[in-house]
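FW: tagging you since you asked about this chain on Friday. Here's the raw sequence from the shared folder, copied in full. Didn't touch anything.
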Amino acid sequence: MKTRKILFVLALSLGVFATSCSNDDNEGETIVPIQGKYNLRQTGTIVNGQEVLIDAPQNQAGCNLDYLELKLSNTAVMGDYNGTQCALTETTGTYVRSHNDLTITVGNTSSVSDIMNLTNKELKIKDKATGIITVYSR
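HL: got it, structure written out here
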């Protein structure tokens, strides 16, 4: 069950990292660095051409927000707060950014997302396999 939740958060995270910025000088790639710690805020999908986002159900009431940290060393750390004591479980993997694609790998499982938006305050990705959108804030 915990593995499913981690994979779901990972898939959502990857969807949030699919950010693009329209700029002819850099072929649509945003120039904001992707490294940083991002708090999970919203998840959703596109319905009838419109984004439908809700507060992330993975975040447990009364606990800190789950997070994704992307380090300069290409290490990805996913933090998950659970239980009545809000115990933190961290899962570590790697990430690779190629233009506006973000690939996160944990163990033998990889997910690829389009970076939909990447600013100094937000990372929004869309998982290429599932279409799930994940929104993080810095």
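FW: Residues 93 and 107 are 7 Å apart (CA to CA).
HL: agreed, and The beta strands are 36-47, 50-55, 67-70, 75-82, 87-98, 101-106, 109-118, 122-127, 133-137.
FW: great, closing this out.
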